[in-house]
Q: What sequence folds into this?
């Protein structure tokens, strides 16, 4: 079994790449206009997909404090490892935002997630988007009947889908680490609580929903 520090390190590296791609795409698009909203959304989804494929066998590929908490709540992850995972994820996200700032300056607020409308509207959207994401993650990661090879594609596509339609309203963080990194480096804290409460609540709802709907595992008939 991979040691906890190696698993946490894999979480940090994966979160670094995902946040670097997501924030970097927004900053680059702000400077060049080359990506557009669709390009930025696809960048986020592709980054998640490739990191799951690269590190799923090491750490489980959470890369998101909300995902780690939801797995712990549904007994798919040990509580004692949660602080190490959270620490690695938040450190990786902060390092990614610092890298974007070093490379491109502070333009576009380093890709920080901000509400376009009201904070409550964005809160509702973050809950829904993260619930859908966690529903998919729980399905492909914990159910023996799921097609394991499709996990990275399914989860990456869900992130891209959420970013495509939710991004213009809430920023579609779906991940407290994704929100914290650029906020910390750019000093942008407008309605930052939304990007913690929304994903944490949404992930718990999504995981619990799938747990309630999943087919019970088959058991062998007991001899009389």
A:
């Amino acid at each position: 079994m991979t040691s906890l520090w190696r698993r946490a390190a894999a979480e940090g590296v994966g979160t670094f790449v995902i946040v670097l791609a997501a924030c970097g795409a927004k900053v680059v698009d702000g400077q060049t206009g080359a990506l557009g909203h669709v390009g930025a959304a696809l960048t986020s989804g592709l980054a998640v997909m490739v990191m799951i494929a690269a590190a799923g066998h090491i750490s489980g590929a959470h890369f998101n404090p909300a995902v780690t908490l939801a797995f712990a709540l549904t007994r798919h992850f040990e509580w004692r490892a949660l602080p190490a995972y959270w620490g690695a994820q938040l450190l990786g996200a902060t390092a990614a935002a610092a890298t974007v700032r070093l490379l491109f300056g502070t333009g576009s607020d380093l890709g920080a997630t901000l509400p376009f409308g009201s904070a409550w509207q964005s809160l509702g959207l973050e809950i829904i988007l993260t619930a859908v994401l966690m529903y998919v993650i729980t399905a492909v990661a914990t159910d023996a009947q799921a097609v394991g090879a499709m996990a990275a594609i399914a989860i990456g596509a869900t992130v891209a889908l959420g970013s495509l339609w939710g991004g213009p309203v809430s920023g579609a963080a779906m991940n407290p680490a994704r929100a914290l990194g650029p906020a910390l480096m750019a000093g942008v804290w407008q309605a930052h609580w939304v990007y913690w409460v929304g994903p944490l609540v949404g992930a718990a709802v999504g995981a619990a929903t799938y747990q309630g709907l999943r087919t019970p595992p088959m058991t062998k008939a007991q001899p009389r």
